[in-house]
Amino acid sequence: MNSLLCAACDAAYWNEARLRCAVCALPLASARGTRGGHGAGRYPCDACVKAPPAFDATIALADYRAPLDALARGLKYRARLGLGEEFAMRLAHAADDLLDPADAPTLIVPVPLSRERLVERGYNQAWQIAKPLARALGTRADATLVRRTLHTAAQARLDRDTRRRNVGRAFALKDGGPTLRGLHIGVVDDVMTSGATLDALAQKLKAAGARRVTNFVALRTPKD
User: Fold this and answer.
1) Domains plus CATH for the chain?
2) Is the Cα torsion angle 158, 164, 169, 170 positive or negative in sign?
3) Where on the tree of life does the source sit, at the highest rank (predicted)?
4) Residue 126 exposed, middle or buried by CB count within 10 Å (0-12, 13-18, 19+)
5) What pLDDT band is residue 200 in, cutting at 50, 70 and 90?
């Protein structure tokens, strides 16, 4: 692959040795298994066992930390759109390792932006990852299936409880859209922090009949 990353960032990706929760992708405190093909050795964290979120799994490339956090900011705020494809190709590679090929996502959707934020930014960074990810996985992508109905405050600046209240009513599905009954939906975002946004979106997809929801995120904060 003709990488856009410098050697330090590339090494930070491929040398990411953390075992992660199979559900929320938080780093696990202890090594309870080894990573293997199609999800072998992946375990849920205690929090996901006690209070499972609406989504079923999360694939994350690495922690949100230097130097990789600069890449996420470059895509999100500086229109370095080529990074979207870079993230997508690496997520597709991770999916080959962690997902059962017989149960791959049948539809990829990005976490939507509000109309106000989309106008302000000019693009949705999650869609810049979702489009090439769908191509790499051999499935389809839909940027219009889910819309954000509330213009909420920036999640990164809020505490966990406020984040969850912030996004609880934030999403709606397209009227007259495709039926989701029995589908495995892949949801794409650039950074996962508390998981509140992805949980709220998965609840909406499950209510519409989705059988399974897998998150694909470039970077995961190491703590909720």
Assistant:
1) 7-220 (3.40.50.2020)
2) positive
3) Bacteria
4) buried
5) very high
